[in-house]
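Sample intake — Putative plant transposon protein domain-containing protein
Collected from: Phaseolus angularis
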Amino acid sequence: MASSSGKRLKTMATKRKEKEPEQPHSSRFLSRKHEKHFKVVQDRRLLMERKVGMIPNFAPQFGEKLLANDWGKLATYPAPANIAVVKEFYTNAKKIGDYPVENYLGYVRGHAIRYDPDSINNFLDTVWASEQCQFALCMEEGADFEDVERVLCIPGRHFQRNRSGSVVNIRRTDLPPLAKYWMTFSHANIQPCSHVSDITLRH
């Protein structure tokens, strides 16, 4: 009986242990493989958000829309980002090997950081209905480029296309002032990128 009971207790303890989340490799990295991957991330250039707070002074309509949407947190930052911490976040967010990683869940120095849509909307104080946004529908159904041209471009200007006729980008010079402000805001605060002279198809 004693032997049987001991085996049963050992089996139950093993099952409980399997259900527990795996402990991080260290206070900074989820696993030894993540720690090694950090050396690769360290050498990569980091594109930081850039403030565009002066834009509303030159375009009242832009500023009014920013305030109406309650997007103040997108245009301001409480403090400059710590580049080392940001790179640790990206290192731990990468799925490496068979280490169990939950989608949209990062780890930074002992703290779990969620970046799923609900968490981001909560941070931005965005009240979001359950239906898809216009961007999601465009991604799913394909963009109406003629409609985009009518909204974004100066009359008579169009998307740039390659030799096969496929859309490539919109040049900054083909945009009216208000669209240029939104382009600058997007490149600086929403999708930071180094290529800011035009709007590429991806952006």
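Post-analysis note: The chain is about 45% helix and 10% strand.
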